[in-house]
Design a protein that fits this description.
mainly alpha
Length: about 80
């Protein structure tokens, strides 16, 4: 599915035509809907499995994330960049 989306993107970028842009946008929406449907099915199956441990593991994974900032570059490293 993503390969097809990339194909539409490349065709639009090469030709810069409005019909190719519309085809890319339409397929992009289909990809987003497919991803949302996948996660919805996954979450429903997780709820219906009655496995409380896996449910909480999934929820904790969703609510936790990176809380810290990445380390700052030293002045010598900034001069190189």
């Amino acid at each position: 599915m993503f390969n097809r989306k990339a194909h539409y993107w490349r065709r639009w970028r090469l030709t810069n035509k409005d019909e190719h842009k519309q085809a890319y946008k339409a397929y992009s929406v289909k990809c987003v809907q497919a991803i949302q449907a996948y996660y919805q099915d996954f979450e429903n199956a997780l709820i219906q499995s009655d496995n409380l441990g896996k449910f909480y593991q999934y929820v904790n994974g969703k609510i936790s994330g990176r809380k810290s900032n990445p380390p700052r570059l030293s002045e010598t490293a900034q001069e190189i960049l």
